[in-house]
């Protein structure tokens, strides 16, 4: 068995980020930073004191600590001290969080250890009944899609990209499919597509999704699609893990994005950037 040794953050970066996070460990400073960040022209220490409902000495202390770390800029206007945000921290702080959580580390190209008995090939005309049946089985789980009825063959055929629709077979039986849809008709987004992956109920847990995902991303890379994206219900952990194994990263949570069966649901928005220059 090969032991995977994690790549550690450089000592200097770790110390810098620790200083940033330690400075923000005080709730008053978080509120103060937010107040300044949402005031483009800045605020005086006196105004901040009133907003935070604290004493001027306490406010000045927290302002000084945030300025020392680099979150704030201070300038004198007469007898008043004007506090403004350091715009660099608007990108630097999220970058630090991503670095610490490993989101900036190299991501895998595609799933490994593919099942030997799964064959993935291009979708053919006689596959549509199986594709729509598997789609219906996904709908029935309640965690695969906002759709409540299986779209018609004509509807799917019209929106799926011709060169990016694949089915998985085991022993000649279609047991899963994946497809990609263009996100926009605008020329600048010609290399961006939204993807879906479905596995037959009777064959889940056998690596079918892994084989389909491998085909999906490698063919997309070869064809010049530079971004693949997808939205997955937050409680569909298996699908999220499958996509992460193919180099997708979590962009964010889309809260109350749409309703299903009368209930508002959240989705995880993920995307994968091709390592190949498009």
TrEMBL record:
Coiled coil: none annotated. Keywords: Acyltransferase, Transferase. Residues 9-111 form the HTH arsR-type domain. SUPFAM superfamilies: Acyl-CoA N-acyltransferases (Nat) (SSF55729), Winged helix' DNA-binding domain (SSF46785). It holds the Pfam family HTH_20. Residues 118-271 form the N-acetyltransferase domain. The keyword Cytoplasm does not apply. The keyword Protein transport does not apply. GO terms for molecular function: acyltransferase activity, transferring groups other than amino-acyl groups; DNA-binding transcription factor activity. This is ArsR family transcriptional regulator. The lineage of its organism: Bacteria, Bacillati, Actinomycetota, Actinomycetes, Pseudonocardiales.
């Amino acid at each position: 068995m090969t032991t995977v040794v994690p790549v550690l953050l450089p000592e200097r970066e770790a110390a810098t980020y620790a200083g940033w996070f330690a400075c923000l460990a005080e709730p008053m400073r978080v509120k103060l930073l937010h107040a300044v960040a949402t005031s483009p022209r800045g605020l005086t220490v006196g105004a901040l004191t009133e907003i935070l409902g604290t004493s001027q000495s306490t406010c000045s202390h927290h302002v000084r600590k945030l300025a020392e770390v680099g979150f704030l800029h201070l300038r004198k206007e007469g007898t008043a001290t004007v506090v403004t945000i350091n715009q660099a921290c608007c990108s630097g702080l999220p970058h630090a969080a991503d670095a610490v959580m490993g989101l900036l580390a190299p991501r895998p190209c595609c799933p490994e250890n593919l099942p030997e008995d799964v064959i993935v090939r291009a979708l053919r005309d006689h596959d549509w009944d199986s594709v729509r049946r598997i789609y219906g089985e996904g709908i029935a789980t309640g965690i695969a899609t906002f759709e409540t009825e299986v779209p018609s063959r004509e509807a799917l055929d019209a929106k799926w990209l011709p060169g990016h629709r694949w089915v998985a077979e085991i022993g000649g039986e279609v047991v899963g499919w994946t497809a990609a849809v263009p996100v926009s008709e605008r020329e600048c987004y010609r290399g961006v597509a939204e993807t879906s992956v479905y596995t037959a109920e009777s064959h889940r847990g056998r690596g079918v999704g892994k084989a389909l995902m491998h085909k999906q991303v490698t063919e997309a890379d070869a064809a010049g699609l530079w971004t693949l994206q997808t939205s997955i219900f937050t409680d569909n952990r298996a699908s999220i893990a499958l996509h992460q194994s193919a180099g997708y990263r979590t962009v964010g949570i889309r809260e109350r994005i749409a309703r299903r069966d009368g209930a508002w649901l959240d989705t995880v928005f993920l995307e994968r950037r091709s390592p190949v220059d498009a």
